């Protein structure tokens, strides 16, 4: 048997490929704190993931185990721990927030808010610290979707200035213009006023340290989108659409707006909501009532990731109305769909971040 040395372990670990980076985990600099005990045949290491809430922990553990057994000895046990770097956006505004991710759509009513809330829950279930900002200031629905209609944020002083304290619900830190405007009251703001309000909501909220701040944007393209893109440098935007032609046409406009030189927010991907109707009474059937694969095609046309499909299900409506997001329900197919999409999203973000690093 080859004498045990660090290089033997590293040779084994070089067999484990990160599917997003297309590199082995040693070359990608992801292996930390390798140690082993030949007597007990135990090796321990830490893998630095590319982004918090990365869904590949099980994948890496399995492959590392197999590689060590194949290269070092079949009785070896492996202990793998995971860390993730802070996504630090630099010392600009909101330095305590790792990544700001916008959820946008072309049209209203495509399920943008539903997706934003459930994605936030799913990211939290994957292990990330998540905030949710309801920036849909013309029709804030986050208070209803999270059962927070009666809630009011408190005010706390910091460095002599008053800040709003976000509300905590289902593991999320939440702020919405809906908490500040009486329910049912319209918010007929003009562009500049709307942008100002949003800027205040972002900067005058006492956000704790977060990996991700999910921002539910107003539909369409306008001043608010420009303000956010230029002043807060979000890490990316996700476009939500249904497969219907009219929704797709508007989603395409929104996507192109985020790509414009003045805006330039990276497109992390497209989510197709209400992709097909599904009911547990006819579990083998999918009803494509709004057409098929429109979201896929949009993603292909602009060469951006397709993050997944969310079916149209009655449960989404009943849970939304009850203020309990479906993504919270363990084992429910709908919750799994949101966990998958959340996993795809953080992987897209990691790939994007890596490309930026490699290119600079
Ligand atoms: P938007 O933010 O784009 O205006 P909402 O999230 O408010 O859209 O959703 C509009 C309506 O569609 C709501 O009644 C919501 O419950 C419903 N809805 C959204 N997504 C789904 C889905 N996947 N299945 C069933 N109903 C959905």
Query: Structural class of the secondary structure composition?
Result: alpha/beta
Provide mean pLDDT, rounded. Answer: 89
- Total domains, how many? 2
Q: What is the gyration radius calculated from CA atoms?
A: 22 Å
Number of strands: 15
- Ligands bound to this protein structure: adenosine-5'-diphosphate
Q: Quick one: CATH superfamily of the largest domain?
A: P-loop containing nucleotide triphosphate hydrolases
Which sequence of strands runs across the widest sheet?
A: 10-11-7-12-6-13-14-15
What fraction strand? 15-25%
End-to-end separation in angstroms reads: 44 Å
CATH class of the largest domain: Alpha Beta
Helix-strand string: HEEEEHEEHEHEEEEHEHEHEHEHH
Any idea what the shape is?
A: globular
Give the name of the CATH architecture of the largest domain.
Answer: 3-Layer(aba) Sandwich
If helices are DSSP runs of H or I spanning 4 or more residues, what is the number of helices?
A: 10
Structure report:
The chain is an alpha/beta fold. The longest helix has 27 residues. The model has no long low-confidence stretch (mean pLDDT 89). α8 links the parallel β14 and β15. It has an 8-stranded mixed β-sheet with strand order 10-11-7-12-6-13-14-15, with helices on both faces. It starts with 5 loop residues before the first helix and ends with a helix. It folds into 2 domains: 78 residues, Fe-S cluster assembly (FSCA) (GMP Synthetase, Chain A, domain 3, 2-Layer Sandwich); 263 residues, P-loop containing nucleotide triphosphate hydrolases (Rossmann fold), CATH 3.40.50. The chain is built from 10 helices and 15 strands. The chain binds adenosine-5'-diphosphate. The site of adenosine-5'-diphosphate (ADP) has 17 residues, from α3, β14, β15 and α9.
């Amino acid at each position: 048997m080859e004498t045990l040395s660090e290089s033997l372990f590293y040779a084994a670990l070089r067999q484990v490929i990160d599917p997003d980076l297309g590199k082995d985990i040693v070359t990608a600099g992801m292996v930390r704190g390798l140690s082993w005990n030949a007597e007990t045949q135990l090796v321990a290491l830490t893998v630095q993931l590319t982004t918090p809430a990365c869904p590949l922990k099980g994948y890496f553990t399995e492959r590392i185990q197999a590689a060590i057994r194949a290269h070092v000895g079949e009785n070896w046990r492996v202990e793998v721990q995971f860390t993730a770097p802070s996504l630090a956006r630099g010392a600009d505004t909101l330095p305590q927030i790792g990544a700001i991710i916008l959820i946008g759509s072309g049209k209203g009513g495509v399920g943008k808010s539903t997706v934003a809330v459930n994605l936030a829950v799913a990211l939290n279930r994957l292990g990330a610290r998540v905030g949710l900002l309801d920036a849909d200031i013309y029709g804030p629905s986050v208070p209803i979707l999270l059962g927070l209609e009666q809630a009011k944020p408190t005010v706390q002083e910091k460095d002599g200035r008053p800040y709003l304290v976000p509300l905590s619900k289902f593991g999320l830190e939440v702020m919405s213009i809906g908490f500040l405007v009486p329910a049912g009251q319209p918010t007929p703001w003009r562009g500049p006023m709307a942008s100002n309000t949003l800027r205040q909501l972002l900067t005058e909220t006492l956000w704790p340290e977060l990996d991700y701040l999910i921002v539910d944007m107003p539909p369409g393209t306008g001043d608010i989108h420009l303000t956010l893109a230029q002043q807060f440098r979000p890490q990316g935007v996700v476009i939500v659409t249904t497969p219907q032609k009219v929704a797709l046409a508007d989603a395409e406009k929104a996507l192109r707006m985020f790509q414009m030189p003045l805006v330039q927010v990276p497109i992390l991907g497209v989510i197709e909501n209400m992709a097909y109707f599904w009911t547990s009474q006819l579990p083998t059937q999918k009803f494509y009532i709004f057409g098929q694969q429109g979201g896929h095609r949009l993603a292909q046309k602009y060469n951006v990731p397709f993050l997944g499909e969310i079916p149209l299900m009655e449960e989404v409506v009943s849970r939304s109305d009850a203020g309990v997001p479906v993504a919270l329900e363990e084992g429910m197919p709908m919750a799994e769909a949101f966990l998958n999409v959340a996993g795809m999203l953080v992987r897209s973000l990691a790939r994007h971040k890596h490309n930026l690093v490699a290119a600079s």
